[in-house]
Amino acid sequence: MTLNVEFLVRTFFVALSGVPIALLVTVVALLFSVPVSFLLALTRINKVPIFSQLSRIYVSFVRGTPIIVQIFIIYNSVPLMLSSTLKQLNFTLNVEAIHPVWYAFIIFSFNTTALLIEVFRSALQTVDDTQYEAGLSVGLSRIHTYRRIIIPQILVTALPNLSTATINLIKATSLGYAISLYEITLRAKVEANFGYHYLEAYIDIFIVYLIVCSLVEYAYKRLENHVSKYKQIGGVRHA
User: Fold this and answer.
1) 24 vs 122: CA distance, rounded Å
2) Rounded to whole angstroms, how far apart are CA atoms 8 and 14?
């Protein structure tokens, strides 16, 4: 069996054309999950009643189930709940016409938020309680104390794990084919269907994801070097 080089080259650019969709889903999921997971991590650290327990259950559910199962559950349940809600409000909307990318936003935000809760919880534990108290003692509000003192320090610890989570999120978007999301994997597989050149298609998918993830990892490394000046020398904040 020999590789069809012409198909390999042509399909590489077809797969590459799916990168914007994969990155769009990644960016939207991160924009939602980063602030929400940070707030939920605070509820875990400060043992806020109800929210702390719910976030723990949420994290356990996401970490204990395959993402492909989460995709099928959300993709099949959201239209039913949306249709039922709209019907009660006497509002007409064809839920079957909703673009798959909207489901992808929900699915990957749901998954990533749970993973980042643990990232931020661990990072918050590396900052000594006295630094928070010192910020309040010099007249800073709670928000300004976190923005100017706490958050810059936790970024040093969180960025490597945030980088890993982002790369895993980009790779997870390849499962978008299960909901007909026309991203990298589905574009290449559709192209392969015409001539049954699946090996070449999978090689192209492999190369495209390798390039994208390597560039994202490099960007995070640069960002880590930039925030390393905030590296804390001192105690650890305990939950």
Assistant:
1) 28
2) 10
Mean pLDDT of 94-107: 90
CB 170 within 8 A of CB 213: yes
Task: Report whether 232 contacts 153 (CB < 8 A).
Answer: yes
Torsion of CA 118, 122, 127, 129, to 10 degrees: 70
Residue 127: which of 55, 227, 51, 45 has the closest Cα? 45
In this predicted model, what pLDDT tens digit does every residue of 186-225 receive, in sequence order?
A: 999 999 988 888 999 999 999 999 999 999 999 999 998 8
Note the Cα 60 to chain centre separation in Å.
17
- Number of Cβ within 10 Å of residue 150's Cβ equals 18
What's the pLDDT at 96?
80
Q: Is 138 exposed, middle or buried (0-12, 13-18, 19+ CB in 10 A)?
A: exposed
Both tokens of 181, joined, read 């999301």
* Each residue's pLDDT tens digit, 114-173: 999 999 999 888 887 777 778 878 877 878 888 888 888 888 889 999 999 999 999 999
Amino acid at 31: L
Split at pLDDT 50, 70, 90, the class of 89 is confident
Q: How far is CA 212 from the centre of its chain?
A: 15
What tokens were used for 164? 């890993």
Q: How far apart are CA 83 and CA 226, in angstroms?
A: 47
CA distance 158 to 88: 44
Exposed/middle/buried for residue 124 (C-beta within 10 Å: 0-12, 13-18, 19+):
buried
